[in-house]
Amino acid sequence: MTTQSAPPVYRFARRTEGAGDGVSAILSLADPGDTITFSGGFPAPETFPTEVLGQLLGDAVSSAAPVALQYTATEGLAALRGTLRSWIAAGQGAEPADDALMVTSGGIEALSLLARCLVDPGDRVLVEGPTYLGAITAFTGLEGRVEAVATDEEGLDPDALAAALASGPLPKLLYVIPDFQNPTGRWWTTERRRAVVEICRRHGVPVAEDVAYRELAFAPEDRPSLWSLGPDVVVQVGTFSKIFFPGVRLGWAAGAPELIGAMVAAKQNSDQCAGGLGQWLVERYLAGGHLEPRLAVARRLYAERAAALQAALARHLPAGCSWTRPEGGFFAWVTTPAGVDTTALVPEARLRGVAYVPGAPFFPGRAETHHLRLSYSRTDADQIEEGIRRLGGLLASAIEEDR
């Protein structure tokens, strides 16, 4: 006789509550069907270096299999780290030491490792308000207390940062995106960069600088990375997802050797090492001089789509709406009149065949509901025009109902 047993009871940890909901919703639109989507920060497939990749993949299988198809050291392939150090030095004017750089499985893993190394339950973590929702999840997933610092068109407000540092326990970390920020598209001025680094150095607070979009400026202008200004206080987090292709899932962290060493040890208890094939491909791609010509193509494409978005917003969004005017990257940030709840409008937007990301998840605590993020990176000009026309009609109806 068989006996029936009760199903298991899964007693989930408190830190799992709501973890990743916003990111999962965005990634679910990777294949949008008939919907015109401005949701995910997906690079345009036209920028993928398929011809070069075909050649490199053939080489990986035919002659480099012992390296490309094998496990790697936790800190990454030595050849890739050497090439990456040179590439960082060429673009930022400073080169990380060998023990000050590690390879990660994308930028989000670098943030997760950073959180694991620095954040205990209840610790304060400061971020821009608004900021990348994946970073908020990384810090709250370790039960950190994430707090927003005010921003304006020039970047993080130094006075607001100083006030936040002067009140309450000293934060474990400040996380920022100075270049074409996700979600606003803003580009910090050089003065703001210097001020933030100096304030954090004075208070002894580490800065995590996310440079996911740094290489995607529409016009050349040299604005120093925070890491180049303060390698003693800044850890830089980067990714190849936006400038190579996201399927490779590869990134890096550059910072103080003490911190990078702790992150390498933490990685040994997660995925142990990033994929060897992806590392080999990136190293060969960089060393072969393929990245810069491809970046030039990507910058032109994204600049054209950003211009198309700006023109469509001016034509179709109702009075009372405002938006940012990015000079690089993937995103623009729309602010509606205060009575409009962009989260509540998502289902109606989908019925109209358009998708966006509501602004609330980009704020710790999700307090502000009258913003939305638009990504133009994967949407062509005709789709941008029609999608914003649909969105404008939706917002006009919502504003009228709120009166």
Automatic annotation (TrEMBL):
GO terms for molecular function: transaminase activity. The keyword Repeat does not apply. Keywords: Aminotransferase, Pyridoxal phosphate, Transferase. Its cofactor is pyridoxal 5'-phosphate. Residues 66-391 form the Aminotransferase class I/classII large domain. The keyword Protein biosynthesis does not apply. It comes from the Bacteria. This is Aminotransferase class I/II-fold pyridoxal phosphate-dependent enzyme.
